[in-house]
Write a structure and sequence with these properties.
Low-confidence stretches: none
Strand content: 15-25%
Number of strands: 5
Structural class: alpha+beta
Radius of gyration: 17 Å
Mean pLDDT: 92
Shape: elongated
Number of domains: 2
Order of helices and strands: HEEHEHEE
Strand order of the largest sheet: 3-4-5
């Protein structure tokens, strides 16, 4: 999620997701890249029956909250975060709703 927040902070238009679904089941995974999908393995799964992973749910939640928001550097500075905590303030298009993140 930190990568997505950083992408929004820097006005990225697109962020590449390594894999839409996991390459193997958790029981059969032998490499960390086998389990980097936003959905569980989709091979032999009927359409609309796929299951999102925890990471997929988190990604959707963060993207829903940050959609249409812009990074606010002044409000971020006002958060007065310690050096070992990253975070950011984001404002809505109307400027009234602010969302704060910590990472």
């Amino acid at each position: 999620m930190k990568a997505y927040v950083e992408a929004v902070r820097n006005n990225f238009l697109q962020l590449h997701i390594y894999a839409l679904s996991e390459h193997r089941t958790e029981a059969n995974a032998t490499f960390e890249f086998d389990l980097m999908g936003l959905y569980e393995r989709v091979h032999d799964v009927a359409p609309y029956q796929v299951t999102p992973t925890k990471e997929g749910v988190a990604y959707k939640t963060v993207s829903d909250h940050l959609f249409g928001k812009t990074y606010d550097p002044q409000r971020t500075a006002a958060m007065n975060l310690p050096a070992d905590i990253d975070g950011g303030a984001f404002r809505s298009q109307n400027g009234f709703l602010h969302l704060h993140t910590l990472g």
